[in-house]
Amino acid sequence: MTAYAAAFDWARRHVDAGRLPTAVLGVATASGIAALDAFGSTHGRTAQVDDHYRLFSVTKPLVGLVAARAIERGLLTPETPLTDALPDFGADRDDIVRLRHLASHTSGITEPAMDAPNLRSTLISAGRDFTAGTMSRYSTLAFEGIAAMTEHATGVPWHEDVAEWASSLGADGLTFDEACDPHEVTDAAATGLDFDAFIGLRHPGAGLLGRATDLLAIGSALLRIGDGETGGVVQPATLGMMLRPLTGDIPRLEPYRAERGQDWGFTWNLRARAPGLIDTDAYGHGGWAGTELWVHPSAGVAWVLMTNRTERPGVEIDEVDNAVIAGL
Description:
By secondary structure, this protein is α+β, with helices and mostly antiparallel strands. The chain contains eleven helices and ten strands.
């Protein structure tokens, strides 16, 4: 881990300062895990490298890969309307919400609380904030739409689909099962989220649990895609489709304002215009309680952070990203 010492010092420093309760940081190349370590504790429970954490929104690109694999099989296209799977959706809308809108946070669907009951009926009856494709506002509910579309097309629930291809890569710890004992989100009570209600949703935008090793296995597989190799996930052209910017210069609403240098591809957060990065050929996703998965294809490296606090003042993720790249 000597090459990545600055990145691991970053994680240790934030844990020692109390800004993060725990941190599991890992780095992978196309060949596999290059470095992995754990720091801190949750209420006396020392963090280990194989501990489970709540992935929250890192779930989103995994669902995106399910949809991309269905596209490869000719079962969907990015232009497929949501109403193909949910005919009752948007009865009062005069626009068409397509798969690409759901996947790029441009659907205009009014966003409810993350623990809103009955996701499917909430989605069907949701209001509209703007015409699909004209603006970008981050949406977790949209992924219920993607899940509905993939299940309608394939006949397989999204989480079973994820488990099948992820397990083949060695990422066999992705689960909904609370028996895996994920680290508690230490400031959960202060957020107002009803965790029992949220857990029961099995939310396709935020519900999976996983380990750093699971995400590193997926990152490593994504790095292997190219020159006709699928990495066990998708074809190179399909990954290229997923990394094609879909938000361009349309207005960006909170929380991802234009000045943050982020675009949305097909469920991936693209950092090509990020002002704070050494290497902007980067894609990935973050999660509500601090989980991160980022892939740098040109540099040939992916990194993962697992932690468990929603409010993290003073923790700047671009810093650790730059430290990983400098370690190369």
